Amino acid sequence: MRFGHRVSGKITSVDDHGRGFFASPEGNFVVPFSAIGDEVVTTFLHRDRRLKVAKIESITTPSPDRVATPCPHAGVCGGCLWQHLSYDAQITLKQEMVNRAFEAAGHEERLTSIVRSTEQFHHRNRMDYAIGWNGEIGLKEYGAWNRYVNLTTCLLLADGVSEILQTVRTWMHAFDLQPWDAKFYTGDIRYVVIRDGKKTQQRLVTIVVKDATRLTDEMKKDLMEHLLAIGKEAGRGDLAPTSILIGEQSLQTDLSISQKFETLFGNPWIEEIVNDIRYRIHPNSFFQTNSQMAGTLQDIVGEFVGAGSPRPSEQILDLYCGLGFFSLYLAKHDVAQQIHGVEIDAEAIELAKHNAQTNGVAETCTFTAAKAEDMSWKDIPAETIILDPPRAGLHPKVLKTVMEKAPQTIAYVSCNYKRLVEELKEFKTAYNVTELRAVDLFPHSPHVEVLVKLEKKTNSAQ
Predict the structure, then answer these.
(1) Can 415 be counted among the known catalytic residues?
(2) How far is the C-alpha of 329 from the C-alpha of 103, rounded, in Å?
(3) Per-residue pLDDT at 462
């Protein structure tokens, strides 16, 4: 089948990536931005293993789940795969996808509900906007690594994004600063990273460049002045950033994190408040991207490990602790006499210590900068372990060592349930799944946070 070949069909389901699926005599097709029930005319793009990826040319009969998309970039931009679906339909699909993964892995557990995001738009506290080789500033097209959507608006962050991006465009043009070309590794400006403190009303803007020495004092002053002027004519001074940084990333790899920073205005960090806990966050730090629903994650983990219990655990081990997100919450709720956090990012660990001091729990919490797979934590006599790994899941050494330590309770927070269901096969040789929950932190995408409580089997139950 050649590129551009036309195929018609009716979307009957979604695949594991959230793309609509239909079968025809010409093969099995997946169609991004489609909905179950859509009758579509598509054109073939490329193969994806045993599937054929196609693009919608027209919709002859729309799905009842379809809604109007408020963003003009919906259907192309990779930021929102499901904006065309009603939120009810999104939640239903996420639950079905998680349950399908559990069933395929041979697990009997099923999700019965998902905690819905309180906000479906303007819910994110961080976005990394790429600079395209043609001068676009925005997000990559869905499924593409070198095609970019030049955003005029973005509904994932709070107001003011379009003004920031346009200010950077104008600044680049005025000083002949070249956009980054990810294919040939040339250019000056790579990313615009915006971080928001939803509760603190702070906004940090980082301009990520290839070589910071290319920027003169005049360039930096001009950028700062125009960013700080955003919204003032309209009486919306709240749209302007409270911190402005220049970040340098000299590696050829496509990265939005910076190796070093220069502060042009404000603090070189941002603060956020979740469940009355104040966190200082570095520009490169990982932090849950939906601040409102992050508090729900904390509440569920607290419930899993005994928040409110009259008999706190002696020791809790918090692997992949980041800035102390769960550790500080549990310390505030007197869940344990001692909480040990481990995190690979040394800068995050320093912030975790600062955050513990700020929130008055420094005596309860200890933090160590180390890779989880280095096993610096293996001799800590923890009764409870919290696992919140990155999307790749647990390192095999970590899984093996946790099983050997055999804590009474494990609280696993997964941003990738496809990895979770595989790891549960090992865990369930010695543990029972006593709770299975899910929280939607990512409206308009197929992603969902899944939480599992594991309790050690008794000898008679093994």
Answers:
(1) yes
(2) 33
(3) 56
